[in-house]
Predict the 3D structure of the following.
Amino acid sequence: MHPKNFRVQINAYQYHADFTINCIETPVDIENAIVDRLGKGDIKWEYLGEMMDPRTRRITYEEVVDGTRTVQSKKVLGAEVAVGV
């Protein structure tokens, strides 16, 4: 088996981390790679603040780099989307 890149996102205790690991695609190897990366101490943790604070509004998204179909298609949304003036 060849190693693959995995994107890891951790949200805990009002902090967020986003990093990639390179390992073989088995649960034990992925877990060990994450623990090894956390042990290095080179991950930047972003403070998110109080998540349940009603004054805080967040928009989250994930970009699809190699998607094979458009996001606004009838197959994805279940309805046709029209753009006009």
In short: The chain is about 20% helix and 25% strand. The two ends are 52 Å apart (CA to CA). The mean pLDDT is 75. Strands lie at 4-12, 15-23, 46-47.
